[in-house]
Each structure stands twice: as structure tokens, then as C-alpha cells.
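quick one, 243 residues, struct below
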Amino acid sequence: MKKIFLNCDLGENFGLYQIGNDEAIVPLADAVNIACGFHAGDPQSMNKTVQLAKKHHVKIGAHPGFPDLQGFGRRKIDMLPADVYDAIIYQLGALSGFTTAHSIKLHHVKPHGALYNMACKDEKLADAIAKAVIDFDKNLILVGLANSKLVEAGKAYGLAVANEVFADRTYQSDGSLTPRSLDNAVIHDKDQVIRQVEEMINHQLVTTVTGEKIEIKADTICVHGDTVEALELVKAIRKLITH
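---
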């Protein structure tokens, strides 16, 4: 089985709102994508998650998104590429304050939610994100949907990139993720998740919602941390990719 790293979207608590099971999931992950305060997260959550990742020797990535706490960053927002650039720099600066305080380096950047999905298809948004990342730190890895505009933009700027696949999301025939507005966007069944992961890693293929098999490149695999079954899925995938 190809070497692949498991990443999880975490650090999404803010104020009195507790989302996910970070303390149980972090030790099982290779890397965490920490919310930077725009779609979720706050200073306390960022600080705590950075410390938790450092304790368990887990790579730390920034998970910048749209300024949309109410919609959890999953609603499309029409932002100019220049404004997206500024938003990425701002959020990387916020998280890096805590990584610096705890003497640990940022490892990667993975945009969140609607911003991620839009940038994977929109060259101008992808360019703005990649430029922000390289301007902030040329040594960071840019994580994007496999075979997307975001990955292409990262390569064009000379960044190291990681093609990302999703364990718990379904795919369209063009290789994009099924919109969350549709009922079949998220996979909740563990057996189905494992079948999809095995196919993506071992055969570089994924079965779309229409039953078509399309080619896909997998450098890293994501499990969302905000679902009820997240911990169970992470345990199963950890076991799969370790053996």
C-alpha cells in the first residue's frame, strides 16, 4: 500500500460551542488542519489544539476559510481574489502565533469548506491562495483536492503540494466532491468508507455517485472531525493504512 498520511479537520470549537472529539482523534492522525477563527475556532481553541498536536507529534496545518461562523464556512461567498489573499495571510498569521509560542512549525495549509471547493475549480481563487501561502512561507505544503486547480496553482508557484482525497465524502464524475446540499454528500457507513479508501489508495480510482470509476491521485486522506462517527472512521482508517 502506498505511503499516505491521514489528516483531520479539528480545532473547530469556539466560545461555548464544542465540536468534534479532538483529544481522542489527534493521537490517531498524522496531521491536523486547525481552524483559524473565520469559519470556526478561536484563540483558546487554536492554542489548545496546537499544544495537543505537539504533545502527540502530529503535523500542524492551517485550515483557513471564509469569514462565516454562522455557516461554518460552507456557504459560497463572492470575494475578490485580492480579498481572499488577505484573508489567508491573516489566518495563517493568527495560527502561526501559537505555533511560534510553542516552538513548533506549521507544516501545511489546507483551505476550508466553500473556499476550498471554489478554489479547486476557479483559477483566480486558486492563484490567490497559492500566492498567499508562498508569500507567507515558501516551505509550507499546499493541500488541495486531487487533480484540482488548487494543486495546479501550488505547483506553478513552486510549492510542495499534496493531492487530497476524502474518506467520508462522495464524488461527482468530474472529480469534484458532491455538494453538501445533497443528501448523499457525506458517507456515514464505515464499511463504505473503508471500501472507498482501499480503492483510492490501492488502485488510484474512486467510484462516483453515478457508479463510474475515475482516476484519482492520493497523497493524503481526510476525515472530517465534526461528524458523529468521526472517531470510529479514523480508527478504522488508521488501522488500514498502518498495515
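Residues 39 and 70 are 8 Å apart (CA to CA).
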